Amino acid sequence: MEPARDATAGLVHFPARLVETGLVVTSRRNPYNESETRSQRMIKKIAVEQLQPGMYIHDMNCGWMSHPFIMSQFLVEDDRVASKLTDWGIREVYIDTEKGDDIHGAQSEADVDEEIHQKVVAAATSVEPLQAQVPLKYEMAKARKIHAEAAHLIHSIMTDVRLGKQVEMERVEPMVERIAESILRNRDALIILGRIKRKDQYTFHHSVSVCALMTAFMKSLNLEADMIKQAGIGGLLHDIGKTQIPESILNKPGRLTGEEFEIMKGHVPLGVQILEEAGGVSATATQVAAQHHERYDGSGYPARLKGDGLSMLGQLASIVDVYDAMTSDRVYHDRIEPATALRKIFEWSEYYFNRELVEHFIRIIGIYPVGTMVALHSGLVGVIVEQGKTDLLKPVVCVVYDKKWGTKAGPIRVDLANPKAGTEPDRIDGTESAQKWGVDPLRYI
């Protein structure tokens, strides 16, 4: 997969699909949270063009984007709803046939979930898993220090920019190099730490996570070292324009108004301007900041780039930006489990992402990322502490509960690829919410 180069601009381009990260969610209800008990009603997925008055929208299937509706769930009362959804780039929705009209032949939510899971498994297990140079337990201490110092650095830089100072690149570059070195030793350490964010510190921790994820993504694609470094810089500084957005909008706990959302979108061109004025910021780094909210269908912002006009760096940035946003607690929504986020991103790649890059990203993170809580077929519940060396479906799990007996168990490390002699092989049945079980996954890693 060779990227094409734009000789005039010196930027890297890779024709594929793109998606933006949503900054607005209208409800704190999380439609993708697997810890929520499914009711007996039938939820079905349909194309927006199939939407008719009398149907009840259960989920607009756009947890990563904003939309023009006051509510996320409502009864469709006229034909204008479908048109409005289309204008906002929403292609498919889920309807509740218990609360509204049904449609013949539509796929159920359960069938969609199973189909996506099978496709994700097929894609992620088609190649050998990536191997770390250093065991995770040895890298975690270094990664904790790097993560804390990087978050402090971006906080300091954004504070300076708010006061009218320029970005000091001599402070940024050494930190990005340290992040890259940690990713090379063991990519999981910083990626796991990236899921720990205080809501009031989200922007700073998110910037560190995007830097780490971009670096891991590009390293796995075997891109040039300097390009990886510059893209990491872009990831760390991609939201620098938010320093110019009022705090009342940045931290608003509810839905943004249309006017507020227009102001929020301005953080992208403002960020590009800040980086261009700083001096010493490469075109590669600036491109990451400029394109992380664009989408393949041209409905993104700020440039409404479409199709082959989207760069490879923009595509990578949009994937990691969405993933980190979805797996983080925000002032206006609760995080979802990483495995669920990966399946949703795969689903959305039908229109918005480059499917090939999404599949590659899943191989990096893992079908069940380290730190994910899972339920085993035996009834045991545990935390994934190490990816399988030969099979992503057979990781090492630290067992902490026994569902059958309703009691704590262990902690006991179980290698699904190497069952103990005389015991039946176990397997993962699905994910669990660490919050529901009151478990801190990092305690077991």
SSE layout and pairing:
Elements: E1 4-6, E2 11-13, E3 43-47, E4 56-59, E5 74-75, H1 80-87, E6 92-96, E7 107-108, H2 109-124, H3 136-162, H4 169-185, H5 187-193, H6 202-220, H7 225-237, H8 247-250, H9 258-265, H10 267-278, H11 283-291, H12 312-326, H13 338-348, H14 355-365, E8 373-376, E9 380-386, E10 396-402, E11 407-415, E12 428-432, H15 434-437
Antiparallel strand pairs: 1-2, 3-6, 3-7, 4-5, 4-6, 8-9, 8-12, 9-10, 10-11
Helix pairs in contact: 3-4, 3-5, 3-6, 4-5, 4-6, 4-7, 5-6, 6-7, 6-12, 7-11, 10-11, 11-12, 12-13
Description:
The chain folds into 3 domains: 83 residues, no CATH class; 240 residues, Hypothetical protein af1432, CATH 1.10.3210; 72 residues, no CATH class. Helices cover 41% and strands 13% of the residues. It has 15 helices and 12 strands. Strand 1 and strand 2 form a beta hairpin. It is globular.
Helix content class: 40-55%
Give the full name of the CATH homologous superfamily of the largest domain: Hypothetical protein af1432
**How many strand elements?**
12
Looking at the structure, what is the overall shape?
Answer: globular
Q: What is the C-level CATH assignment of the largest domain? A: Mainly Alpha
First and last CA, distance: 34 Å
How many separate helices?
Answer: 15
Q: Please tell me the overall pLDDT.
A: 86
Q: What is the alpha-carbon Rg in Å? A: 22 Å
Give the strand content. 5-15%
Poorly predicted residue ranges? 1-40
Briefly note the structural class of the backbone.
alpha+beta
- Count structural domains: 3
Order of helices and strands: EEEEEHEEHHHHHHHHHHHHHEEEEEH
**What's the CATH topology name of the largest domain?**
Hypothetical protein af1432
